[in-house]
Amino acid sequence: MTEPIARHLEARGIRYTRARRAVVEALEAVDGPKSVSELGDRLAVPQSSLYRSLAVLGDAGVVVAHHGPDGTTRFELAEWIRGHHHHLVCAGCGAVRDLALTAEEEERLQELVTEAAGRVDVEVEDHALEIVHRCEECR
Amino acid sequence: MTEPIARHLEARGIRYTRARRAVVEALEAVDGPKSVSELGDRLAVPQSSLYRSLAVLGDAGVVVAHHGPDGTTRFELAEWIRGHHHHLVCAGCGAVRDLALTAEEEERLQELVTEAAGRVDVEVEDHALEIVHRCEECR
DNA sequence: ATGAGAATGAGAATCATTCCTAGATTAGCA
DNA sequence: TGCTAATCTAGGAATGATTCTCATTCTCAT
After folding, report:
1. Any idea what the CATH number is for the domain that residue A68 is in?
2. Are A42 and A7 contained in the same domain?
3. CA distances from A17 to A20, A41, A51 (A)
């Protein structure tokens, strides 16, 4: 999985250094977007470096930022790496888990989005569905 | 429209002061969630007061915060005032516009959400759909 | 091995947001 | 209407997340 990322970065003249590799590997290992402090725990890397690595990887299109209802910024691998998916967000603690729709569900969602966007005459570039629930700890 | 809000606050023992009224009226006048600085322009009120009013109105369930893909916090009137709706977000500047689905579309979305959530065994508390596009200024 | 360019670490700077306090406003009541 | 107690506001200080800066270190092509 690290292979296409390495090529992607190389193609853009961006080095795939140890620090960046560590960030990508940490993000590969988890099941949803993680905040800088959550990542910091796993990585023992200075925050400034973490932020910088995330910014570089973000510009390169390898990671994307996600902002849940609690306002915290969390990062995850881009969809071309991890696949298109949606998010399950806890209303209490803000923790986020990935949720993939089935191909059939995704198609229905697409239709819905296209239909609604067409009504106001905009071209859809992307869509994101967030399902809010309450995780077990927050009940 | 201001009437039910006044009663809602009164019922909770929260005063509907001039400052809070101004915030609510500003939010009634616009077509999507607005950030504190966007509101500050319209209101000539110190930021600390704006934040405080928004916090009070937020606790009271009159306004809710929204966090778009650019990470900026934007505020809007709660759904019981403005009605359930979704958001159209510009990938360039982050500006957000409200977008209401038709009742029929909303129902299809509900179904989809319930179905997907059921698969991972969570109880849905709410859902949010975001359609990303590119506004005219950002083309 | 060497040099040029890029990346890193550590801390300072910035920005949004929250907190604090003294003074102003408000509602309820005489 | 005028008084009182409670609540609210303005303004600035404090906080916390994020970004910037710069001196040092690393990488890669020679």
Report:
1. 1.10.10.10
2. yes
3. 5, 20, 15
Give the domain extent around A51.
1-79
Q: What is the pLDDT along chain B (139 residues), one digit of tens a residue?
A: 678 999 999 999 999 999 999 999 999 999 999 999 889 988 889 999 999 999 999 999 999 999 877 788 999 999 999 999 999 999 888 888 999 999 999 999 999 999 999 999 999 999 999 999 998 888 7
For residue A8, give how far its alpha carbon lies from the nearest alpha carbon of chain B (Å). 22
Domain end among A27, A44, A79: A79
CATH code for the domain in which residue A135 is found: 3.30.1490.190
Query: Are B69 and B14 found together in one domain?
Result: yes
- Residue A74's SS3 state is strand
d(CA B129, CA A78): 19
Q: Is A68 on the interface with B (CB under 8 A)?
A: yes
Q: Which of B20, B54, B25, B21 is nearest to B37 (CA)?
A: B54
DSSP state at residue B33: -
Q: Report the SS3 class of residue B129.
A: strand
B105 and B64 fall within a common domain? no
Query: What is the pLDDT at residue A6?
Result: 94
B109 and B57 within one domain? no
The number of C-alpha atoms within 13 Å of B61 and in the hemisphere containing its C-beta is 12
Taking the CA of residue B135 and the nearest CA in chain A, the distance in Å comes to 8
Q: Do A127 and B126 touch (CB under 8 A)?
A: no
What is the arithmetic mean of pLDDT over A24-31? 94
* Chain D bases closer than 7 A to any CB of the protein: 7-13, 17-21, 27-28
